[in-house]
UniProtKB/TrEMBL annotation:
InterPro entries: DNA_methylase_A-5 (IPR003356), SAM-dependent_MTases_sf (IPR029063). This is N-6 DNA Methylase. One of its GO terms (biological process) is methylation. The keyword Kinase does not apply. It comes from the Bacteria. Keywords: Methyltransferase, Transferase. One of its GO terms (molecular function) is DNA binding. Residues 154-256 form the DNA methylase adenine-specific domain. It comes from Amycolatopsis pretoriensis.
């Protein structure tokens, strides 16, 4: 999941946002066509999985061709492989994305079939053309997907979590001011991270690396925050991303609490890895 830090969108941002909306509508249609409970976290996780898989592939066409020709069980195996890679490289991201990956071990053939149909629909709508290359810097796909999944019509994008790119860009240009290395960017209504994306674009346009900033984001919606965690990888914000699920108005010290939670989690992961390494050594034949 390593890419050049100075990357920026090579295409037209408006076209990228229109493409994101199209994908969102097709994903919602495919998911709801399968019947059963709404469970927006599942199709949102499917789209996130495809986005991360597209980053790790040598050619995005390889991922699309492989998925299209495989069974639902095969797709679930691919998804588990993708998230194992996330766990190995960025356990902090998996921690926040947990609400959208609970389907990884499957819950029966019907759900597996809906998952695969949703993945096929996302690919047919050209998701990897948007998220598999530099165009991903020009749009937030997961925001419109979450909005479409929550829309009663299942074909319209609710504006609850999605901030249009031009609006976000204007806001962040003012918020950042004379941006400097080490600066902190805070969004206490982060949603799926639209302002993060726009701010990163401003930072790059000014010749700096977004990984040199610290990013704080909070929201009451755990699915939106999970999407923001995945987006932080897609948009190459670096490891200094601190996310929090909660109400910032009721919790004025949320940023401090979030930072402490992340540090504690990292300590626990480090300790667990040490235990696993010791067990592996003990089990090694001599």
């Amino acid at each position: 999941m390593n890419h050049r830090a100075g990357a920026t969108g090579a295409g037209n941002p408006i076209n990228a946002e229109c493409h994101a909306l199209k994908i969102a509508v097709e994903v919602a249609r495919a998911w709801h066509k399968g019947g059963g409970p709404d469970r927006p976290e599942v199709p949102l996780g499917v789209v996130a999985t495809l986005a991360l898989a597209g980053l790790t592939a040598h050619r995005k066409a390889d991922v699309a061709d492989w998925v299209r020709g495989r069974s639902p069980a095969d797709f679930l195996r691919l998804a588990r492989w993708v998230w194992r890679a996330v766990l190995a490289q960025r356990p902090d991201v998996l921690r926040m994305a947990a609400p959208i990956v609970g389907w990884l071990h499957g819950e029966g053939e019907q759900l597996a079939g809906r998952i695969k149909s949703t993945a096929d629909a996302a690919l047919a709508a050209g998701q990897l053309d948007l998220t598999g290359g530099d165009r991903r810097f020009d749009a937030d796909l997961l925001g419109p997907v979450l909005g479409a999944l929550r829309s009663p019509a299942a074909t319209k994008v609710d504006a609850q979590m999605y901030t249009p790119g031009d609006v976000a860009l204007a806001l962040t240009s003012v918020m950042l001011g004379d941006v400097k290395q080490g600066q902190v960017f805070v969004d206490d209504t982060v949603g799926t991270g639209g302002l993060f994306r726009a701010a990163a674009q401003v930072v790059r346009d000014r010749g700096l690396d977004p990984t040199a900033l610290t990013w704080y984001g909070a929201d009451v919606d755990e699915l939106a925050v999970a999407a923001a965690a995945v987006n932080s990888v897609l948009w190459q914000l670096g490891t200094n991303v601190v996310l929090y699920v909660g109400d910032p108005l009721a919790e004025p010290d949320w940023s401090e609490a979030a930072a402490q939670q992340k540090v504690q989690f990292q300590r626990e992961v480090h300790a667990l890895r040490g235990v696993l390494a010791a067990l592996d050594l003990e089990n090694t034949p001599r």
